[in-house]
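sorry for the late reply, my laptop died twice this morning and i had to redo everyting from scratch. anyway the thing you sent over, i finally got around to it. pasting the sequence first so we're on the same page, its 275 residues, then the predicted structure underneath. double check i copied it right bc i was rushing
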Amino acid sequence: MNGKVYLVGAGPGDPDLLTLKALRLLRSADAVLHDDLVGPVILKLVSPAAQVHNVGKRSGVKKITQEDINFLMTSLAGLGLIVVRLKSGDPLIFGRAGEEIEALRRANIDYEIVPGVTAAFGAAAAAGIPLTHRQLSHAVVFLAGQHAAGIQETDWQKFVSSGATLVIYMPHDPGAIASKLKRAGLEDEMPCAIVSRATTADQQVHLTTLAEIPHTPRFSAPSLLIVGDVVRFAKPGVLPAWSHSANVVPLAEMQMLLAQSAFMKPEAAEERVAR
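ok and here's the structure:
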């Protein structure tokens, strides 16, 4: 009798962001196949009786091929085991879930997808950045900073012209990405944020502009690059390169915007911002 595979999102790193269903499955699974980016705190939640296999890669170095992962996953389920394929973030966002679903279907293995908090939401929340805004951005686009061999290059101009907030996963060469975005029409002063290891104790948030991205320090993986005017709403703590720019919304205007959005008096908004 076949078992079942659960494609489970572990979230961006903070174990408190696991769903209740993910936690229940970790405690009851017979086998867990996890990515490198799933941290040790989350792995401690796995049942001591379960098989645990690290099937991830770090910095592009593969410990196991995707074909090997598919074989291990389907073989364990074929033995009647309950298998959790544990992925950082959400399994449906740059998590190769599509390839693994195809393998499970070919093997006639039952499966279920358990969504998780994707890295984009974790990074934006950590930095206090709204990914959409009624006056600034009506859409958000998730993009990969690198592609598999043979895949066509991203049409950056199409996404830039849409006016959407851009969230770029795996920006291993931010300077090259910034150059492509500028060639596609974005201005040098466009606010950007690089968020590294979002929601963990090692989290770092760096605010900058498109022009300054090539001069920013290197950050530990996993990291994301957020590009768009919404980055101006990032919470205080790290002074951005554009903090004294004439294009930045003045504090008084920001307080009024907060007051209008929260349906409270400007005096209350000013007091809240001061605190």
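The CA atoms of residues 157 and 184 lie 4 Å apart.
thats about all i looked at so far, will dig more tmrw
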